[in-house]
Specification:
CATH architecture of the largest domain: 3-Layer(aba) Sandwich
Strand order of the largest sheet: 1-12-10-11
Oligomer: single chain
Helix content: 40-55%
Strand content: 15-25%
Largest sheet: 4 strands, parallel
Number of strands: 12
Structural class: alpha/beta
CATH topology of the largest domain: Cobalt-precorrin-4 Transmethylase, domain 1
Distance between the termini: 7 Å
Shape: flat
CATH class of the largest domain: Alpha Beta
Bound molecules: iron/sulfur cluster
Length: 290
C-alpha cells in the first residue's frame, strides 16, 4: 500500500485569464466551427493536446498571415497592433481572449511610449524576449521599448531621458526590483526612474501559497509546462524552501526514489496548469509502488 499523504494546493490551477481563453475556445468548438489559435493557447502540452482533440488548430504567425476568411483566437497573452491589422486585411474574425489585465497593461505601455517619444524618455519592459506577452507589449511601443530579462543585461543598455519600467505580468517581484535598482544606478541626477509594477496578482498571490505547501510537505511535485514563465518562477520559490521539489510536466516523469523516506507530498503548479492535471498527478503519485 502507498504510504504517502498527497495534498493538492487549492490555489493552483488556471488563472482567470486562461480560464476565460479556454472557455471562449470551447464555446466556438462546441458549435462545430473551425477555430484557429495564434500560438499555443497555454504553455502546457497536456492541455494543448486536450484542446487539439476538441478541434482547436494551433497556427504560427506565418500561417496566420496567409489565412483569409477564417476565425482565429487571440490568446490571453495579447497581441501587438499588427495582428489586428492583418486580421482586418484578411477578413479574419478575431475571438479576442486577451486577458483584461494584459489589455490594461498594453494601454499603459502604449501611453507611456507616446509620452516618452514626446519627452525623449525610454520605456523598459522587464520580461522574456520573444514571449508572446512581451511581443504584444513591444508592439504597443512601435518596437521602441528596451526589453531586459535580468539585471545583468542593463549594463549593455543605454537609456535616454527618464525611464519608465514595466514588467511582464508573470515575472518575479524580486528580479523586477533588482532590474529597477540597476537602472537607477545608471541614471544621472537629472533623470529619474518610474516603476510601474505590472506583475499580475494572480501570480504574486500564489507565491505564499506554494511556499506554505513546500514547507508543510516532505516532497513537492510542481506541475507545469517547460515554457511557462511563472511556472519556472513559482517552482524556484518551492525549491528555495524545500530541496525535494521536482518540476514535472507529466506523470511518466515521476521517479520513485524522490519519495524515499517521504510521508507527505504537496502538488502545485503554474497559472497555465489545469486542475485536472494536478489531480492526475496526485493519482499517479498515490499509485506509485511505495
Ligand atoms: S497571469 Fe494574470 S495577466 Fe496573465 S493571463 Fe493570468 S490573470 Fe491574466
Amino acid at each position: 500500500m502507498n504510504r504517502l499523504k498527497v495534498t493538492i494546493d487549492r490555489k493552483s490551477g488556471f488563472c482567470f485569464g486562461v480560464i476565460n481563453a479556454t472557455k471562449l475556445a470551447e464555446e466556438v468548438l462546441a458549435r462545430g466551427e473551425t477555430l484557429y489559435c495564434l500560438g499555443d493557447l497555454v504553455h502546457n502540452s497536456a492541455e494543448i493536446i486536450r484542446m487539439r482533440k476538441l478541434g482547436l488548430v494551433t497556427i504560427d504567425r506565418q500561417m496566420f498571415e496567409s489565412l483569409k476568411n477564417v476565425t482565429v483566437l487571440f490568446r490571453a497573452h495579447g497581441e501587438p497592433p499588427l495582428s489586428y491589422e492583418i486580421a482586418k486585411k484578411n477578413n479574419i474574425t478575431v475571438i479576442d481572449a486577451t486577458c483584461p489585465v494584459v489589455l490594461k497593461l498594453q494601454q499603459r505601455v502604449r501611453e507611456s511610449a507616446a509620452l516618452s517619444a514626446k519627452n525623449g524618455g525610454t520605456v523598459v519592459l522587464f520580461g522574456k524576449r520573444g514571449h508572446a506577452e512581451v511581443e504584444g507589449l513591444l508592439g504597443q511601443t512601435k518596437n521602441s521599448a528596451i526589453v531586459v530579462s535580468n539585471k545583468d543585461e542593463i549594463k549593455e543598455k543605454k537609456f535616454d531621458g527618464n525611464v519608465i519600467l514595466f514588467s511582464q505580468t508573470t515575472m518575479g517581484k524580486e528580479a523586477y526590483d533588482d532590474v529597477a535598482k540597476e537602472i537607477n544606478s545608471r541614471l544621472d541626477s537629472a533623470h529619474s526612474l518610474k516603476k510601474i509594477n505590472s506583475i499580475c496578482g494572480q501570480v504574486s498571490r500564489r507565491i505564499p501559497a506554494v511556499i506554505e505547501l513546500a514547507l508543510a510537505n516532505d516532497v513537492v511535485i510542481f506541475v507545469s509546462g517547460k515554457k511557462s514563465s511563472n511556472g519556472k518562477m513559482l517552482y524556484d520559490k518551492c525549491l528555495s524552501v524545500n530541496s525535494l521539489s521536482y518540476f514535472v510536466s507529466e506523470p511518466s516523469e515521476l521517479q520513485t526514489e524522490w519519495f524515499t523516506n517521504a510521508v507527505s507530498v504537496g502538488i502545485c503548479g503554474a497559472t497555465s496548469t489545469p486542475v485536472w492535471q494536478l489531480e492526475e498527478m496526485a493519482e499517479a503519485v498515490k499509485s506509485l509502488n511505495l
